[in-house]
Write a structure and sequence with these properties.
alpha/beta, Quinone Oxidoreductase, Chain A, domain 1, Rossmann fold, 2 domains, 6-stranded parallel beta sheet, 16 strands, 25% helix, 27% strand, binds NADP nicotinamide-adenine-dinucleotide phosphate
Length: 335
């Protein structure tokens, strides 16, 4: 008998999620039936959408999210013991599942790509959902051309740090916004951003105009809010905006969302294309992104930094820390 632990979300969060909003539930798992596998989690992901979706679904629910796990027992010939899998089973240390071919996020399961010796944690990061988000969300929607100026917000995070580096690989000039001087240093010194700006302390408009004297061509928006309104006001004719997320408002009351300067004049006069997306649009093509991302990491063109929290007991702290901006790169929990 295996004793399994999971985190159940009890409430619709009010403001920053609280420990009391979660309940640790322990259960004995039954013996496997034909077709089933027993998975032990090795890397659990904490992500902003775990906050954002909370208000859209009924409670209680098992906390969902991506994780990399190892098949510990199997009654499924396609998934023998030892197979590494990526699933969306969330904050569970052990679970039983019946693998099926599906693009439905709840039941998605796929074998961890061959990471060629890189850390398997990348399966929930640069070679997982966030990697696919950066790859398709930027390349398919912004369609960047060499020489163009690209702005990324949330630039030091999992998705943003990859988008900026992909933009550099594509020959663009890259400006990133992030929330601390350490992050700014890292983006400029380690990741090769042309300019990084601390949105918490800078005169954002002035510094952006100085950094992008010829204006902005593409904006990859992770944060929304007033920062995005300012950036959009600096976009050139026929510029593109890829709207990936709006983390600046995830902890706000959905019935009283903050207001920001209207962007419609820029959209009209500059004839901008603004497109939101969910990375699930390209689920069938994720392997294509993973192949390229692994190649870029292996040759040193892409740095996949991680912010690792140790221990299943600390998954909540890792989640709150990520929302508060403690992470450089991808926030992940080593079980
Ligand atoms: P992340 O950037 O690694 O972590 C979240 C970061 O958000 C924090 O480190 C913090 O950095 C920043 N942040 C927190 N509060 C903020 C605020 N009030 N204003 C501005 N920034 C704030 O997370 P991620 O996984 O890469 O996700 C980034 C964005 O992409 C999120 O909006 C997420 O929802 C979105 N996303 C969308 C899809 C999709 O399919 N559309 C898929 C994945 C992710 P600072 O220190 O810089 O503030």
């Amino acid at each position: 008998m295996v004793k399994a632990r999971k985190q159940v979300v009890l409430n619709h969060f009010k403001g920053v999620p609280k420990r009391e909003d979660f309940k640790l539930v322990e259960e004995e798992l039954p013996p496997l039936k034909d077709g089933e596998i027993l998975v032990k989690a090795e890397w659990i992901s904490v992500d902003p959408y775990q906050r954002a979706y909370n208000t859209q679904i009924g409670v209680p629910y098992d906390q969902f999210g991506f994780q990399v796990g190892k098949v510990e027992d199997s009654k499924n010939d396609d998934y023998p013991i030892g197979t590494k899998v990526v699933t969306h089973k969330g904050w569970k240390d052990y679970f039983i599942t019946t693998p099926a071919v599906t693009t439905n996020m709840t039941d998605i399961i796929y074998k961890l790509p061959d990471l060629q010796g890189l850390s398997e944690s990348l399966g929930v990061g640069a070679v997982g959902m966030p990697g696919a988000t950066a790859y398709f969300g930027f390349l398919e929607i912004c369609k960047p051309k060499a020489g163009e100026t690209v702005v990324v917000s949330g630039a030091a995070g999992a998705v943003g740090s990859l988008v900026g580096q992909i933009a550099k690989i594509k020959g663009c000039k890259v400006i990133g916004f992030a929330g601390s001087d350490d992050k700014v240093q890292w983006l400029e010194k380690e990741l090769g951003f042309d300019k990084a700006i601390n949105y918490k302390t800078a005169d954002v408009l002035k510094e952006l105009q100085e950094a992008a004297p010829k204006g902005v061509d593409c904006y990859f928006d992770n944060v929304g809010g007033e920062l995005s309104s300012v950036i959009i006001s600096q976009i050139n004719l026929f510029g593109r905006v890829s709207v990936c997320g709006s983390i600046s408002s995830y902890n706000d009351d959905v019935n009283k969302l903050p207001k920001a300067t209207i962007i419609q004049p820029s959209l009209v006069f500059k004839q901008l294309k603004v497109e939101g997306f969910l990375v699930s649009r390209w689920t069938e093509r994720w392997p294509e992104a993973f192949k390229q991302l692994i190649e870029w990491i292996k040759v040193g063109q892409l740095k996949a930094r991680e912010h690792i929290t140790e221990g299943y007991d600390h998954v909540f702290d890792a989640f709150i820390g990520m929302l508060a901006g403690e992470n450089l790169g991808k926030a992940v929990v080593k079980v």
